[in-house]
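Repro:
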Amino acid sequence: MKDFPDFMRNPANKVDSKSQYTPDIEGYVFDGADESQMAFWTYKQTAKSKEHSHEYEEYIVVVQGQYTIIIDDNRIPLNRGDEYLIPKGVAHGGEAIAGTRAIYAFGGKRTKRENINQ
């Protein structure tokens, strides 16, 4: 597959890209009853994510391409099928090559949809 299925890319779940740490990223979000979220990200171009941290854990699995997590100047490359758990409060950034697709699970509310009423 070269993209996530249509039902996962429903416009009603599209992430507000202006509020993200990575420019020009396309994402779709699904919310859990406990305020957790799942996000499906596609990096249309090679991009860097600004360093940031969260008040909850963040889990990443790469579906296609490569995403490199950067923690304290340590580079942790993730390729297709690789996964990583970022502990709560750990400052991290990253780099993705164009065409990378990844699934993220957040232990808290991380992002909002383009339509702020949703």
